[in-house]
Write a structure and sequence with these properties.
Order of helices and strands: HEEEHEHHHEEHEEEHEEEHEEHEHEH
Oligomer: single chain
Structural class: alpha/beta
Largest sheet: 10 strands, mixed
Shape: globular
Bound molecules: glyoxylic acid, manganese (II) ion
Radius of gyration: 22 Å
Length: about 400
């Protein structure tokens, strides 16, 4: 609730875009809480924040857990934030009981998971896992032309002089708690989701370039209207995708029209496609359709760039079973399910055994200001996270 005040919207949601002053403020607050518990903060070159709680044996590979503090423009209080705070609860429980795990535990706050201000999504973890190039990423700009590297420098100066994390740690495992963002757990009255994996995701940017002209004097036959071309391109793609099973997730969620004047024919349209499916082959087929349709755009020029190509993620089977058994030992109902949303865990799964824990959210609603999760569900997820981390740490110690 305290974090939810930072960037609170009038309708009860949160708008806390990555690398804004609000993002820094939220990070500062969580960092202060973790430091009070005995964690040591470090930050890497892309702005991921690591809060390390020491273990008893520094020879052992650390375990990590975390998520993100940035939100969608009309987002809620829980998406991402819960995973960070559930991890903080684990640190707090350890500190309160004066216990140390054998290995260190890193609470990680990934930079820009949402990708709404600077695209693509899962940026910090993507750079960390080597899926995105650091130098290219630092040069990206937001809708107002702000360069990511400059915004990052500003955040770094706000957070103060933190020790620099030079290269990715070799983690023994990564755990991420998250609200489900879908209806399955709530509908089946299940308290805990043991997440088996994440569907594949591809994000593209399309730039349609035409020519601006006077809206009153230019006959249709003489126009190169970027908006008309962009609309027919989107229609062509959706018509060409056969989706009888209703599994294809095709979204155009950002659409910019330039110069954006009522009496000028649009010269340029920039839009993003977010495409998801549980089968990589199907994603490949649909990408071919998108490429073909883009190549067939008439009158204007259309350029397509793939920003992120994240394959279907399968989480570590042993860790999925560990979540199930930790939940059962605490007498919580548990169900194994895949994730429709993407998460930083998809990047981490390329580096080390990874798993996620889901808790129900009201009506399955997320990326919406009304997003809500019940305290008892959030508590249950944090208990499972703590027990699973402890069990894993003790296994590693053997
Ligand atoms: C993360 O918010 C996603 O895009 O699934
Ligand atoms: Mn999230
Ligand atoms: Mn999200």
């Amino acid at each position: 609730m305290e974090l939810g005040k930072i960037g609170a919207t009038e309708s009860g949601g949160v708008n806390r875009q990555a690398l804004t002053g609000l993002d820094s403020q939220a990070r500062k607050l969580v960092m202060a809480w973790a430091v009070t518990l005995g964690a040591e903060p470090r930050m890497d070159a892309i702005g991921n924040l690591f809060l390390r709680f020491p273990g008893t044996n520094s020879e052992l590979a650390p375990i990590s857990t975390g998520s993100h503090l940035d939100t969608q423009p009309g987002g809620g209080m829980f998406d991402g934030i819960y995973g960070v705070l559930a991890g903080l609860e684990v640190l707090e429980a350890l500190a309160a009981s004066d216990r140390r795990l054998p290995c260190a535990l890193d609470l990680v706050i990934w930079l820009n998971e949402e990708g709404s201000r600077f695209s693509p999504a899962t940026m910090g973890s993507g750079v960390y896992a080597g899926l995105l190039d650091l130098e290219d990423t630092l040069l990206l700009t937001d809708g107002d032309g702000v360069v990511l590297g400059d915004a990052l420098e500003m955040m770094k100066s706000t957070l103060g002089n933190l020790e620099h994390e030079n290269s990715p740690s070799i983690y023994d495992a990564y755990f991420e708690a998250h609200i489900e963002q879908g209806p399955v757990l709530e509908a089946s009255h299940t308290q805990i989701g043991a997440v088996s994996g994440i569907q594949g995701l591809r994000q593209y940017e399309v730039i349609v370039s035409g020519q601006s002209a006077h809206a009153g004097t230019t006959p249709r036959s003489r126009r190169q209207d970027a908006l008309v071309s962009a609309m027919s391109l989107i229609n062509d793609i959706t018509a060409a995708i056969d989706d009888s099973e209703d599994l294809v997730r095709f979204t155009v969620g950002r659409f910019e029209v330039h110069p954006g004047s009522p009496n000028t024919v649009p010269s340029k349209v920039i839009f993003n496609i977010d495409l998801r499916h549980p089968d990589d082959d199907r994603l490949e087929e649909i990408e071919k359709i998108i490429v073909q349709c883009t190549g067939r755009v008439k009158t204007c020029r259309a350029d397509l760039q793939c920003l992120i190509r994240s394959p279907v993620t399968h989480f570590d089977e042993g860790l999925v079973r560990l979540i199930e058994s930790a939940a059962k030992a605490l007498e919580f109902s548990v169900k194994t399910l895949p994730s429709g949303a993407t998460h930083d865990a998809s990047s981490m799964a390329r580096l080390c055994p990874t798993v996620m824990i889901f808790v129900p959210c009201r009506d399955g609603v997320s990326h919406h200001e009304s997003e809500w999760a019940e305290p008892e569900h959030l508590w249950a997820g944090a208990c499972v996270l703590a027990d699973a981390i402890e069990a894993r740490a003790n296994e590693t110690d053997l």
